[in-house]
Amino acid sequence: MRNLFRSNQREAIAIAVLSVLLALYLATHPSGPNTYVMTIWANQCLILALAAIAQFFAVIVRGIDLSVGAVMALTNCVASYLVIGSGLEMGLGIVAVLAVGIACGLVNGALVVFGRLQPIVATLATASLFVGLALLLRPTPGGQIDYDLADAFTLDVLGIPTALIIAAAVVGLFWVPLRRTGLGLGLYAVGSSEQAAFQSGMPVPVIRLASFAMGGLFAGLAGLYFSFVTTTGDAGIGPNFTLNSIAAVVLGGVALRGGVGTLTGAMAGAFILKTIGSLMFFSGLPPLAQPFIEGLILAGAIAIGGAGVLRVKNRLEVFAQ
Amino acid sequence: MSKVTQALPGVDALLPYGGAVLLVLGGSYFFPQILGLDYLAQQLQIAAFLGLLALGATLVILLGHIDLSVPWVLGGAAIVSTSLVGSGDPALAGMAIPAALLFGAVVGVINGAGVAILRIPSMVWTLAVNSMLLGVAVLNTGGFNPKGEASGTMIWLATGTVAGFPVAFVVWMAVTGVMALLLTRSGFGRYLSAIGYNEKATLLSGVSTPSVIFAAFAIAGLCSALGGVMLAGYANQAYQSMGDPFLLPTIAAVVIGGTSILGGRGSLIGTIGGVLFITLLTSILSVMQISDAWRNIIFGLIIIVMLLLQTLRRKDP
């Protein structure tokens, strides 16, 4: 048990913080803890959590993805055309939306692997491209998502918010099995030391591509879920999500230098970030002070994470790559 | 390191100049007025705002870091300067520009503190600083466009002309000159790219790396603040989120100019080329009056092509 805690220390801290924040939120919410309040909260958190997972897959292989928000905007706009109609049409529509997400991820991956661009600049450029495509589809916000389908994903099942069930499914049915495969191991190997991974005979380019494709898939899922929550298409949703997804993975204990952190941590970070925002809303603070307090808390949380280096005895250790 | 100090710029640094010339020639095929002196002088004036930001960003990127607080350092400096001028008190109005620059330098030092002492990745720390600045600005202005106006000096800096050249362009070139001296003729310049290459080795060879990081971020803050002051002079006011559209073009300009985002390698000459290229590209795309969507798409594609030209030309990654 102790070993389990030690090896997942960052996640454990993140989850403890989240529990405290959630308890505070439910305690301060004017209408008290009920399913409705939980559902709204969980829906908002899940959107950012999916975006944070997309960011996680870029960061874990020592990259960064500045196009997460842009891919969300594009898939959101695609969904506003395709996720409506008969059951079959909606099914195919969802597949198409996710395929767009994966394609975006593969474009990023190809530029990084074959074009040898640094991920940060490659995704900076593709973000502009993806937002352009989204604007082409929806110059002004509009379109529609099937209400029944949207309700099915954004309400609750037996009092438990569907968003939380989806979050649990992503961890239990996707991440835990993936972590045990060669690919799951390869992600960490490439992120920790690309050269060592290459010299141990790992297919580094394939792992990189796969990682970006999974990032694209989750950005697509985030865009799709955003569509379920808002039931409309909007090409302008991107910028906030990109920056918040980076903040979320860092809060969740994923190291930007790659190779450290878990998908669960990234999700926890996103939940924390969103819960802080919601707490602000009902906290009774003057509304104008809220953006500042939010920024302060974010900076404080990150600084506390960084304060560990002040205790390091050997100054050279802080450069450890 | 050698690329910073060598007299002749490398091919990487010249690439954006070639691209800029192609843009002007290609654009003039459709719109002959692009070759006119008025249009080109106007481009130099507009390029100066992005150019000042990119100069600061070049220093930080050479160091192997990144500064995402540019938007609200710019916005904050604009708010500080315009509200001091708008206060009506001549003494305060005279302080407007120095106060705004001081504000930029202080934020730069805060950025440096997080990066150099707490060792927080600059990408996250400067992002957090940016959102705190946004918060302070909202708190002070109530979310509305801040009151105040630009002083005569600020307007002159942004829109005046000297011997036929826009003052903004002259200021940009002057700051570039000072910075080029700093990079090539002082230890600071060498330490900067040395840290970009290998921070550990630089520290071990006796350089006080934290002070270099502090100085680089402070200078970057100064540059952003100066850009903000001039932009406020250009618009004769400060407005909410006036800096947001500048963040990504700034990074794009530096990288297109051949500076490695990993640090250690790059040049100011390349950054200037990158700024001219991005400014011309944006301007020609808007002259063509195509929709926002296509503007984004073409912008993204051209940046990708420029970056690929740069990396694929090199044999080893």
UniProtKB/TrEMBL annotation, chain A:
Which Pfam families does the UniProt entry name for this protein? BPD_transp_2 (PF02653)
Which stretches are transmembrane?
A: 12-28, 40-59, 66-84, 90-113, 120-137, 157-178, 209-229, 241-260, 267-286, 292-312
> Is Transmembrane helix given among the entry's keywords?
yes
**Membrane topology listed for this record:** Multi-pass membrane protein
What's in the keyword line of the UniProt record?
Answer: Cell inner membrane, Cell membrane, Membrane, Transmembrane, Transmembrane helix, Transport
Please give the subunit comment from the record: The complex is composed of two ATP-binding proteins (LsrA), two transmembrane proteins (LsrC and LsrD) and a solute-binding protein (LsrB).
Reported function: Part of the ABC transporter complex LsrABCD involved in autoinducer 2 (AI-2) import. Probably responsible for the translocation of the substrate across the membrane.
**Classification via PANTHER family:** ABC TRANSPORTER PERMEASE PROTEIN YPHD-RELATED-RELATED, AUTOINDUCER 2 IMPORT SYSTEM PERMEASE PROTEIN LSRC
Protein name, per record: Autoinducer 2 import system permease protein LsrC
Origin organism of this chain?
Roseobacter insulae
**Upper classification of the organism:** Bacteria, Pseudomonadati, Pseudomonadota, Alphaproteobacteria, Rhodobacterales
TrEMBL record, chain B:
Q: Which UniProt keywords apply?
A: Cell membrane, Membrane, Transmembrane, Transmembrane helix
Entries under InterPro entries matching the protein: ABC_transp_permease (IPR001851)
> Where in or outside the cell?
Cell membrane
From what organism does this protein derive?
Answer: Roseobacter insulae
For this protein, the record's Pfam families field holds: BPD_transp_2
User: GO CC: one term?
Assistant: plasma membrane
Descriptive protein name: ABC transporter permease
Question: Which terms does the record give in the GO molecular function aspect?
Answer: transmembrane transporter activity
Q: Show the stretches that span the lipid bilayer.
A: 14-32, 44-66, 99-118, 124-143, 155-183, 212-234, 246-262, 268-287, 294-312
Q: How does it sit in the membrane?
A: Multi-pass membrane protein
